[in-house]
Amino acid sequence: MSALLEVRDLDKRYRTRHGVIHAVQGVSFDVREKETVALVGESGCGKSTVALSLLHLIEHDGGRVRFEGAEFDQLKGRREQELRRDLSIVFQNPYSSLNPRMRIKDIVGEPMRTAYGTRGRELVERVREQLEAVGLGPEHLRRFPHEFSGGQRQRIAIARALALEPKLLILDEPTAALDVSVQAQVLNLLRELQRRLGLSYLLISHNLATVESIADRVLVMYFGRIVESGTVSEVFNDPRHPYTRALLDSVPSIDPSQRHRLKPLEGDLPSPLRPPPGCAFAPRCARAAHDCTARPPPLGSIGSREAACYHPLGG
Ligand SMILES: Nc1ncnc2c1ncn2[C@@H]1O[C@H](COP(=O)(O)OP(=O)(O)OP(=O)(O)O)[C@@H](O)[C@H]1O
Ligand code: SF4
Ligand SMILES: [Mg+2]
Questions:
Q1: What is the pLDDT of residue 149?
Q2: DSSP labels, 150-217
Q3: What is the pTM (predicted TM-score) of this model?
Q4: Is 177 in the same domain as 255?
Q5: What's the pLDDT at 211?
Q6: Nearest ligand to the C-alpha atom of residue 171
Q7: Binding-site residues, ligand 1, Cβ < 6 A
Q8: What is the pLDDT of residue 60?
């Protein structure tokens, strides 16, 4: 499998009234064709910032993004537009991501109208096909978002994201705002669409059960950096980074037989305005030693996966 998306040393700082927040630091990863890569980590660790930077919805401060071998930042004109169609996003909250004043046919049809100038009956036909692909009938075409349930709205958002036939879909917490029973239906739809359309997914989630059920590989992010990466089974069954271990131990749903071991993640994330020196997990880490606070541990190979820790957990 070749890399569809290559991200190298992505860096993003937010300049706020209170100071600079280094939200993403040296993040590198690949997403290959037809693969699902999950980005996990606590709230505020920088997951959405990575997604928005990839889509150029915010400008990043450093690093490179390549898509199908082409440098994303250096593309101009038509080629840039073509490439932008290949990348699409579904946001967390289908209640706020769909324009309440637009009918479904216009919400789903807008990307096709803008990109290809599709209009009239042809546009309606294309929207009808897109809705059908996500399990919604043509009777919905003239309705407004408020007439739909959360799960249906997320289907509409997925139909819109797929309108230009992207190769890679970024899913930023696609089921977090939905009822548990509806979450499974949306995940099944995403799985089916991936199989049918050969899509790649970058799935952002702090729901590890969701990640386990759908992803091939996982990137664990902490305080702006990737601290561990590998296949889902490697990382979830045999984590090497103490943060990954703590994250897994804090989740009840991932393995019911282990539920008695449930431990809340202790300590708070450090203030992003005052990052600790060295490893950002040190203030919360039981294995922390002197050398941990000198400089941030680099991401190094441990077998076929990577972890950024001076004293990784044993295999
Ligand atoms: N527009 C912004 N201006 C200033 N700081 C921001 C902005 N957006 C995000 N941040 C900060 O950047 C850091 C990373 O935020 P981000 O939203 O990327 O995290 P996240 O992992 O997506 O969190 P969540 O799981 O809550 O969605 C946080 O410290 C956040 O407060
Ligand atoms: S580098 Fe040190 S403080 Fe950081 S996770 Fe590893 S052992 Fe813990
Ligand atoms: Mg987010």
A1: 94
A2: HHHHHHHHHHHHTTT--SEEEEESTTTTS-HHHHHHHHHHHHHHHHHHT-EEEEE-S-HHHHHHH-SE
A3: 0.93
A4: yes
A5: 94
A6: 3
A7: 14, 16, 21, 23, 41, 43-49, 206, 272
A8: 87
From the CA of 287, give the closest atom in ligand 2: 7
Residue where a domain terminates, one of 136, 164, 192: 164
In this prediction, residue 265 carries a pLDDT of 76
227 lines ligand 2 (CB under 6 A): no
Residue 207: which CATH number?
Answer: 3.40.50.300
Q: So what's the pLDDT on residue 93?
A: 85
Tell me the residue range of the domain where 117 lies.
97-164
- 174 and 76 together in one domain: yes
38-75 in b/e form (b: 16+ CB < 10 A) is bbbbbeebbbbbbbbbbeeeeebeebebbbbeeebeee
| Candidate from 223, 226, 247, 285 with most ligand 2 atoms within 8 A of CB, to mutate | 285
The structural domain count of the chain equals 2
Same domain, 179 and 156: no
Report the chain (315 residues): mean pLDDT per 10 consecutive residues: 89 95 97 97 94 87 89 71 85 88 96 94 96 96 95 95 95 91 94 96 92 96 97 96 93 57 73 92 94 95 94 87
Please tell me whether residues 175 and 63 are part of one structural domain: yes
Atom of ligand 2 nearest to the CA of 312: 6
Distance 7 CA to ligand 2 centre (A): 25
User: Ligand 3 centroid vs 43 CA: distance in angstroms?
Assistant: 7
CA–centroid distance, 24 to ligand 3, in Å, is: 12
Would you say the CB of residue 287 lies under 6 angstroms from ligand 2? Answer: yes
25 phi, psi to nearest 5 deg: -130, 110
Q: What is the pLDDT of residue 269?
A: 80
- Tell me, in angstroms, the distance from the centre of ligand 2 to residue 306's CA: 14
Token pair 């290559």 is found at: 6
* pLDDT score at 55: 86
